[in-house]
TrEMBL record:
InterPro entries (alphabetical): DNA-bd_dom_put_sf (IPR009061), MerR-type_HTH_dom (IPR000551), MerR_fam (IPR047057)
Matches recorded under CDD domains: HTH_YyaN
Residue ranges of domain HTH merR-type in the record: 2-71
Pfam families recorded: MerR_1
Protein's UniProt name: MerR family transcriptional regulator
Assigned keywords, A-Z: DNA-binding
Family matches, as PROSITE patterns: HTH_MERR_1, HTH_MERR_2
Source organism: Saccharothrix xinjiangensis
Amino acid sequence: MTYSIAQAAERSGLSIDTLRYYERIGLVDPPARDSGGRRTYSDEDLGWLVFLTRLRTTGMPIRMMREYAQLRHRGDATTSRRKQMLYEHRTSVRERIAELQSCLDVLEYKITHYEQIESTFVEGITVEGITA
């Protein structure tokens, strides 16, 4: 199946401008064109776009994504280097998750603390609105 640039943008969650930018910087191979010269994307193209989106969401710099895309373009001979890049990036993602978990723990603590204060405050008020 083929998709227009608008459909590819919608399905991948990227903007049309981002798709064109990714093509311009070499993250995405130039897509096929229809008889009118309009870009058409395949299911394989969409799969690659989803993968790129995941890499970007995890914080991989564009520079590294470009290197990965160039290696991918060279084929199976680059599998070891691509795997190594993903191992290294996975380590940084795990570190970021741990950092975020620590921040979440602090937020949870503060929320619980404020709920306890509010609970104590509400329990200390009588029906007439006078503090006991």
